[in-house]
Amino acid sequence: MKYSLRMTQAQHAALQSHLFPGDGNEAVALLLCGRRRGRDRQVLTVRKVVVIPYDACDRRPDSVTWPTDYVDPLVGEAFGRGYAIVKVHCHGGDYRQFSATDDRSDKALFTAITSLLNDDLPHASIIMLPDGEVFGRIVGENGVILSALASVMVVGDDLRLWTEQRGFLPGFAIRHAQAFGSGTTEILRSLSVAVVGCSGTGSVVVEQLARLGVGRLVLIDPDVVEEKNLNRILNSGKEDAYLSRPKVHVLASAIARMGLGQEVIPLQLNLLSPDAVRAVAECDVVFGCMDGVEGRHILNRLATFYLMPYFDVGVRLAADGAGGIDSIVGAVHYLQPGRSSLFSREVYDMKRVDAEAIRRTDPDMYCRLVKEGYLRGVDEDRPAVVSINTFFAALCVNEFLARLHPYRNQQNKEFAYVGGNLSEMQFYTEAEAAPCSALERHVGRGDVIPLLERPALS
User: Fold this and answer.
1) Which of 246, 253, 279, 288 is the most buried (most CB within 10 A)?
2) Is residue 162 assigned to a domain?
3) Residue 170 and residue 213: Cα distance in Å, rounded?
4) Whole domain around residue 53: which residue ranges?
5) CB within 8 A of 250, min separation 6: which ones?
């Protein structure tokens, strides 16, 4: 079982500010976390940060003693909800391990917590170093240490990831390391990335992520290859269309032929299914490469519940039907939990989401409501050109790399949105905006019933 921990930039900043006030003494805090409980992967998602006041502690350069009264309210919130409780303290300098004092403290604390919660679920103890690095371990019943945390991710304007994985750099990744550094290249190899939508832009995103060396790819798309797709799905061919092969299987086969050693999970599922949502939630990063807005709405919600960085790419080519082009536009959005969303950025409204849902679940009613004027029709198939899809898909993947390895002259917070109009050869950027009030309360909730609080996913 692999365990990971995720938190937002704001949560990490609050911890670092409290744990390192400048006096050289240790300090302590607690986290309340949601969970994604998979068969071989579990993720803890930080929901709340509780700092233990300095005057309530006996703080020294190499230890901190604190009253466990502050645990009681968190036990009350966690009881019956499956939440995890995480202890956080700091180490000065570069002391990257748990001390014997930490071992005794964790055993006593987590024996009490697991006894009170009585749900057999693991919890965690983590340490922060002065530069903000975080590492930790998973603790089970009776304070037994189960394993080290495989990774800790901070999702913000930049993506910060600390992982246990270290090792040999394969030959295909050497030039990537020359550009982005061996540390970034190793992070790519440790990441699990979901790509939702494996057609025009999605197939290009998958190609790039695979050749960059991402270690695990989860591909989500319900459709099969058709002849009309052959002009834009990378690595597809006439035989795939003739045999109606699932798009995800065609791309998985292409990755296998590369021979770069990735794990690929092809899932022929609609995102609007519980199994797809759960599979995406276990990944570290998600790319949305969908035409419609219903899937985007669910993906933004999923990324908020499970604290995932979400990269969305969209392309629109408006043709006049007589061989001319009115406009060629595309956009890349970077979404981080607890901040603005595609909804708050007015990429769509709920009427469009509802219209797509009705078209998917009851096509006859959809046609009737459109005809009677109760619904505005959803866009049907639009022109698609592989060169345009490739351009904006590459822009999206480079946005991902810029968050892992900031290389721009300006800070990443200035590039929440990057849009381009190829007809005018103009590009636009927008900075991160105010938090989305509709999603803010769901940050870090993890698994709930019904899933994502959507009855259709129960």
Assistant:
1) 288
2) no
3) 9
4) 2-155
5) 225, 233, 235, 236, 240
DSSP classification of residue 66: -
How much is the average pLDDT of 234-254? 96
SS3 126: strand
Chain segment 158-173, per-residue pLDDT in tens: 999 998 765 544 554 4
| Residues belonging to the chain | 458
Tell me: do 70 and 144 sit in the same domain. Answer: yes
Give me the sign of the Cα torsion angle 181, 183, 189, 194. negative
- Residues 181, 88 share a domain: no
Over the stretch 332-355, which tens digit does the pLDDT of each residue have? 999 999 999 999 999 988 888 888
pTM for this prediction: 0.93
Q: Are residues 200 and 138 in the same domain?
A: no
In whole angstroms, give the CA distance from residue 116 to residue 104.
19
- Whether residues 338 and 445 fall in one domain: yes
How many CA atoms within 13 Å lie on the side-chain side of 206?
A: 36
Predicted confidence (pLDDT) per residue in 71-83, tens digit: 999 999 999 999 9
Residue 160 inside a domain? The answer is no
- Distance between CA atoms of 388 and 384, rounded to whole angstroms? 8
